[in-house]
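Mods, move this if it's the wrong board.
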Amino acid sequence: MSHTDSEGGINPLEPLGPVEERVRQFLIRRARETSPDQPFTAVITYGDLCKALDPDEHYWVAPRYRGIGQVLGRVSRWEHAPGRPLLSALVVQAQSMRAGKGFAQLARDLGEHVELGQDTAYWRSQVEEVVCYWSGRESSLDESSDAAKARALALLAKISGELDEVRRLLA
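Not the wrong board. Structure tokens:
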């Protein structure tokens, strides 16, 4: 069964494969068990994720954990289609404990407006959204926090870009 559409992209409506669904359920469980007051306790490194899901390392092999990036991208595309936050935000690089550059690019590919230089702020907002969404609890994070401001600015930029497009179409 192929995960590609007629243009060669991933079809987000096609059911996830067994490995993808296993990764998805693991990340959902992690988000559900995390307090929205401390959303960054939900993050997990690529290596730790692979070891948790495949302790004998039969599928994912260090040092690059072959294939995990594609699996995470597929899971996030599948989650994005109905409007849920990107679960792959919870998976981080061990050295920086932040998302890799591919995360912001994935968001852009999905149509999210991520300003240049705002990759980290966008990632932080997605971690918070994932935990709040899946925990089913409201965050008590101060709405004046830097992450909330960055998210608000990103949303305003997206709206502004869409308004510019409407103006061009109407002109």
